[in-house]
């Protein structure tokens, strides 16, 4: 395990606050950069947008092999290692920086949904949509931070034991790149028609829903989150796609990951884990979706329909109970609470229902907190292990980053991970996008299909023309 120490830092204010467009294009300039963007919908969870500006190395894992890629000299270190041991490195940092005034995400990246098989004794489908690792994290020593509350921006440069340049040297080099992007007046806007082809036939989709209802009828499971992928081709840059997608779908947990051989664009409203000071863990599950019409009176009726939906409330209640149990395994007895339940959450194109569960922990490692909640119950079903195994039998493809976890790990025991539920996984010009929803005994296949298509349209609307194709 690489032992990293973090000893000091400098920060410099930027005269102009970079907007989404500038941050997105800065991310696209260099492999290994990660942008965690917030639309500032929630004053606590959405205060900061953070760009890992100077990636030092990445750590990835696949099939028992850990690879560390150093960006300054383009060298690789490959070792055989256990999944848990490899991931534990991400959650362990040696730092004297205990009271930073922003959540410094020294490691940021993702864990694939399918990695559950390493520690839950579960299975995943055999076929992969694209060739990606089981997890991928980047370590950075320099960050561009936008404080949405104070409406200012700074570059934070840390002195670490793996840094190639001093903090001052890095600032001088990187500030010029930032100011160059800020001075730009024109950005591309590419007009393109997209054909999104579902990788499941409608007949098979309906059959799969009925199979799930048979599992429920037999008492094997109460609920399953069933998903399926679409594939499309686009020449539009990931920087532009991220900008378009987030502009039309405001959320507090957006991420643009400029990976080594792929890009990830994720627009998520759902927080899987918030761990503060190594003592408080929170999760905010979402279940239930209904479209918005654009008419205030009609939208009020639609939101009321969702709030009183027996099926959606039942889904959310089951997931809340599952997450209470997950948090309870690592929390101080009696400390787990449901702070609120089935609250309406409004977004530009739709409404969701969500809840909040918290617990207090004591002497629990960050990795154990993460694994206790991963994968998120809202995207598996309940009971979790039964649901995951049924998903592996019914879904044809591995999910990859979709419904896994994207987030950061910092100092002082802090970390935040979201559930990437509106996510583009990109390989060259090929885009993969998954959609789905929770299936219960009350589910009607035709309505479930329409809900999944509502979610897919929120993605396709970023293109000037689009169509959905089923074989």
Please characterize this protein's 3D structure:
The protein is α+β, with helices and mostly antiparallel strands. It is built from ten helices and 26 strands. A hairpin with a 2-residue loop joins strand 24 and strand 25. The chain starts with a strand and ends with a strand.
Itemize the secondary structure elements and their pairings.
Blueprint: E1 5-13, H1 20-27, E2 34-37, E3 48-52, E4 55-62, E5 65-70, E6 75-80, H2 83-88, E7 94-95, E8 107-111, E9 135-140, E10 142-147, E11 152-160, H3 167-182, E12 193-198, H4 202-217, E13 223-233, H5 238-248, E14 253-258, E15 263-268, E16 271-276, E17 280-283, E18 286-291, H6 296-307, H7 310-328, E19 337-346, E20 350-360, H8 366-373, E21 381-382, H9 384-394, E22 405-409, E23 415-418, E24 423-427, E25 430-439, H10 445-460, E26 465-469
Parallel strand pairs: 1-7, 12-26
Antiparallel strand pairs: 1-11, 2-3, 2-14, 3-10, 4-5, 4-9, 5-6, 8-9, 8-22, 10-11, 12-13, 13-21, 13-25, 14-15, 15-24, 16-17, 16-23, 17-20, 18-20, 19-20, 22-23, 24-25
Helix pairs in contact: 1-5
Question: How would you summarize what this structure contains?
Answer:
This protein is α+β, with helices and mostly antiparallel strands and 471 residues long. 26% of the residues lie in helices and 35% in strands. The chain contains ten helices and 26 strands.
